[in-house]
């Protein structure tokens, strides 16, 4: 609790000032373009994107970030995103919140070594804050200091969740039992499936013999670590194939497959059909339901 309080205190010291908030609903405005996102970011500015429905994929420094329902990301001005780095084609409903920090970068709260941080909002508390800020901003009846108090509470929630998600994920203690290490490993794969993951990398993470790790993981989850990784990736591609028009190779790349042919091979092995056939069948189902 002491460490958590320290983190919260550091967050409260940041001088964050509200700039703007925009809510988008593609179903109401079919002409909405993804280029609206991050269109005018300035130095010392944070952008928060909350994805209520749909998918948002971001590529930065050759790393893929995938957001889906009830997830959010924080992007700072050092991300150097370009227009083609953002795929918001499958987004249906989302919020864009711009925040300007008047504190120098040297004093800023640092989430990680990366310029983009993503997290799942399982309790939708973030959306409640965004709705409140959006509503009060449109009314024009909320004083700036009151607005920024709400903003501070939101930022505290966002940063603290991401901070402790990252810290807890990598807080693998030496006194962990082998069973705890294996479950920790599964959590790591669930969170970092887009990264280049090998058996050697996984075994080094938990300081366990590679073959012993494979046996324990297989006993716990009825699949080897790599088979489980492939399943996680394939499950995500099925969602992307349904929700987007991304090319087959691009879908595979987004979730961590280095080869389009290998992705197609694994997809067919697990589903009995190719990715293109899966997309076609789903499209036909949609037409039949309309």
Structure notes:
49% of the residues lie in helices and 18% in strands. The chain is of the alpha+beta class. The strands form two sheets. It has a five-stranded antiparallel sheet with strand order 1-7-2-5-8, covered by helices on one side. A three-stranded antiparallel sheet has the order 4-3-6, with no helix packed on it. The longest helix has 27 residues. It is globular. The relative contact order is 0.11. This is AraC family transcriptional regulator.
Helix and strand arrangement:
Elements: H1 2-12, E1 16-25, E2 45-53, E3 56-60, E4 63-67, E5 71-76, E6 86-87, E7 93-101, E8 116-120, H2 125-139, H3 144-170, H4 178-192, H5 199-206, H6 210-221, H7 225-243, H8 248-254, H9 260-271, H10 275-289
Antiparallel strand pairs: 1-7, 2-5, 2-7, 3-4, 3-6, 5-8
Which terms would index this structure?
290 residues; alpha+beta; Jelly Rolls; 2 domains; five-stranded antiparallel β-sheet; three-stranded antiparallel β-sheet; 10 helices; 49% helix; AraC family transcriptional regulator; HTH_AraC; transcription regulation; Homeodomain-like_sf; transcription
């Amino acid at each position: 609790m002491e460490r958590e309080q320290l983190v919260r205190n550091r967050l409260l010291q940041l001088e964050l000032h509200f700039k703007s908030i925009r809510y988008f609903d593609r179903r109401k405005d079919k002409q909405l373009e993804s280029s609206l996102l991050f269109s005018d970011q300035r130095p010392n500015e944070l952008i928060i994107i909350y994805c209520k429905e749909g998918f948002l994929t971001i590529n930065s420094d050759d790393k893929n970030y995938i957001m889906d329902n009830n997830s959010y990301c924080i992007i700072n001005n050092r991300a150097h995103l370009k227009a083609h780095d953002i795929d918001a084609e499958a987004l249906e409903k989302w919020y864009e919140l711009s925040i300007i920090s008047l504190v120098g970068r040297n004093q800023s709260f640092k989430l990680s070594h990366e310029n983009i941080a993503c997290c799942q909002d399982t309790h939708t508390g973030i959306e409640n804050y965004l709705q409140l800020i959006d509503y009060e901003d449109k009314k024009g009846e909320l004083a700036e200091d009151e607005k920024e108090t709400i903003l501070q509470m939101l930022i505290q929630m966002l940063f603290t969740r991401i901070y402790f998600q990252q810290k807890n994920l990598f807080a693998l203690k030496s006194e962990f039992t082998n069973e705890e290490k294996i479950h920790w490993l599964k959590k790591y794969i669930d969170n970092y499936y887009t990264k280049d993951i090998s058996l050697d990398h996984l075994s080094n993470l938990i300081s366990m013999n590679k073959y012993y790790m494979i046996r324990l993981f297989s006993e716990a989850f009825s699949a080897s670590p790599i088979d489980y990784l492939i399943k996680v990736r394939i499950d995500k591609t099925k969602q992307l194939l349904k929700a987007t028009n991304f090319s087959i190779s691009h879908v595979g790349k987004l979730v961590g497959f280095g080869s389009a042919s290998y992705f197609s091979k694994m997809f067919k092995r697990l589903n009995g059909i190719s990715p293109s056939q899966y997309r076609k069948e789903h499209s036909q189902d949609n037409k039949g339901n309309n």
